[in-house]
């Protein structure tokens, strides 16, 4: 993978011979990796995953890196998703309060809108009962 000139056009296929983690901090490198994660072979995906895992926490708090991890949560194997989730252990509060980390937490713990609507309805019901007492 190489960029040509200042226009950030990527050329070549997805050979993983360079440090992928260095690309996450770059908007176009991150976008390229995200797009490729949708179509690469399992072997290539494993290679990227093994390279980014040691830097998972710093990726979670990076403006572009978070997108790479979010894409893995969509296109990674069950084992990879579990390993990413394990990286959250002990960091949920810190990440929740961090500008970019909070997006990773939101993706990891999506809110079911039907469940939220039911909770809101139950809360209104309880409030109505309290007002009648």
What does this molecule look like?
With 133 residues, the protein is mainly alpha-helical. It has helices at 21-24, 27-37, 42-52, 56-60, 65-75, 78-86, 92-97, 101-108, 113-132; strands at residues 2-4, 9-11. Strands 1-2 form a two-stranded antiparallel sheet. It is elongated and about 65 Å long. The N and C termini lie far apart (69 Å). The model is unreliable at 1-12 (pLDDT under 50).
Task: Lay out the secondary structure.
Blueprint: E1 2-4, E2 9-11, H1 21-24, H2 27-37, H3 42-52, H4 56-60, H5 65-75, H6 78-86, H7 92-97, H8 101-108, H9 113-132
Antiparallel strand pairs: 1-2
Question: What's the short story on this structure?
Answer:
The protein has 133 residues and is mainly alpha-helical.
Overall average residue pLDDT: 77
Strand arrangement in the largest pleated sheet: 1-2
Order of helices and strands: EEHHHHHHHHH
In terms of DSSP E residues, the strand content is: under 5%
Dominant shape: elongated
Low-confidence stretches: 1-12
Radius of gyration, in Å, reads 19 Å
The helix fraction, in percent, is: 55-70%
Contiguous helical run count: 9
Q: Tally the beta strands.
A: 2
Major sheet summary line: 2 strands, antiparallel
CA-CA gap between termini: 69 Å
Main structural class: mainly alpha
């Amino acid at each position: 993978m190489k960029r040509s000139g200042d226009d950030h056009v990527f050329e070549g296929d997805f050979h993983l011979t360079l440090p992928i983690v260095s690309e996450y901090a770059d908007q176009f490198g991150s976008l390229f990796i995200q797009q490729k994660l949708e179509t690469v072979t399992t072997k290539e995906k494993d290679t990227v995953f093994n390279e980014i895992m040691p830097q998972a926490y710093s990726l979670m708090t990076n403006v572009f890196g978070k997108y790479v991890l979010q894409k893995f949560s969509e296109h990674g194997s069950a084992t990879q998703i579990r390993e990413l989730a394990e990286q959250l252990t002990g960091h949920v509060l810190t990440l929740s309060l961090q500008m970019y980390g909070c997006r990773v937490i939101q993706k990891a713990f999506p809110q079911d809108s039907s469940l939220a609507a039911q909770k809101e309805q139950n809360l209104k019901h309880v409030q109505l009962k309290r007002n009648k007492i």
